[in-house]
Amino acid sequence: MSVLWLQVALYAGWGGHTSYNDLVAAGERWHRFYSMGEVGVRLLAEKRLQPAISVELGRFISQDRRKGLFSQTQWSCVGVSLRLRLFKKALSPLGELHFFRLNASIRGLEGRTLPGAPASIATNGIGWNAGLSWRMTPFSELSLLYLRRRPQTSFLEGVGGPTRDRIEGLLGQISLYLFAGTPNRSRFQ
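RESULT FIELD:
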């Protein structure tokens, strides 16, 4: 058990992003409001490179006030990630590469499917997180990350745009370690 450490990580996060003409048709200006959460298990928590598996749940509301367009999207995804914590010190920058399978359901204001839009979407995607991590105790860690996900679809709002859509925001993570040992302060212990 000394080689394979388990880290059970409980995440809570929120984010916000305004998408402009790079994602939607010219003349549209969509505003998104996010909420999301994630739970995962990370292996090799004492190492700098840590593989993980996680489940994300999220919801966002998109609207174009000028044109009166509105949609609400609920999504879930299962993903695997590889996390790099640059230093073994208490404070360290970190980055994560994330591969996922996303399932989304898009509805209008009345809760019905939008005309011309699929009722649900299932697609693969890739994403990344980057931020700062603080190991408070040998058993817990706090991280603040910028999150960006790129599913291979342009229908997350129910209205197809010229490019693939994205999910982005800020994510706060609280990680709890199981079976963590206290760090050796001397090489002779």
